[in-house]
Amino acid sequence: MSTERHSDVAGAAQQLGDAVLALGATRPDLAVGIAALATAVAAEAARTPRFANAIQAAFTQPAEASTGQPRARRPARRAPGPIDPFAVYADGGESRLREQLLALELEQLRDIVAQHGMDHDRLAMKWKDSSRVVDRIVEKVTSRVAKGSAFRDA
Questions:
Q1: Does residue 153 belong to any structural domain of this protein?
Q2: What does R_g of the chain's alpha carbons equal in angstroms?
Q3: What is the mean pLDDT of each run of 10 residues along the chain (154 residues)?
Q4: Residues 6 or more apart from 132 whose CB is under 8 A from it?
Q5: CA 57, CA 101: separation in Å to the nearest integer?
Q6: How would you class 66 by CB atoms within 10 Å of its CB: exposed for 0-12, middle for 13-18, buried for 19 or more?
Q7: 68 in a domain, yes or no?
């Protein structure tokens, strides 16, 4: 190891020692634990090149990249649907609902599907045909409205 690197390592070790000693004045149990942790990590990194490389990568890469897995993205929120399909169905039935849905663009239909959780199989958001999405919305609205009808008064 070069003299410059040895000096850097010695300085870092001295800083760690000073910080642990300062902590030990008020929180001795925590100071001992941190010292034991730092010692165990350093000893394992010296013993195992793979572990040392993983530690080095953690210091040089952003946190989400260090796991080796792509960061899970939160799905973009869609705009609320332009109509409430349940209200339209309640006012005018299935034919009125279909009529209003067919007047909407595909992205507006997808907004309704997303807002009301109508894509259980994760297919409807991929469909390019508006009529398929309309059929899905009508199917979900009618089934949800009818749900529990066996227990309602006739």
A1: no
A2: 31
A3: 75 86 91 90 90 84 58 75 95 95 96 93 93 96 87 68
A4: 124
A5: 52
A6: middle
A7: no
Domain span including residue 46: 3-60
Do 52 and 97 lie in a common domain?
no
Distance of CA 149 to the CA centre of its chain: 37
Q: Minimal CA–CA distance to 86: which of 135, 131, 138?
A: 138
What the block records as the tokens of 25 is: 């004045």
Among residues 44, 60, 76, the one where a domain terminates is 60
Is 134 within a domain? yes
Contacts 24+ apart (CB under 8 A), 52-59: none
Domain count of the fold of the chain = 2
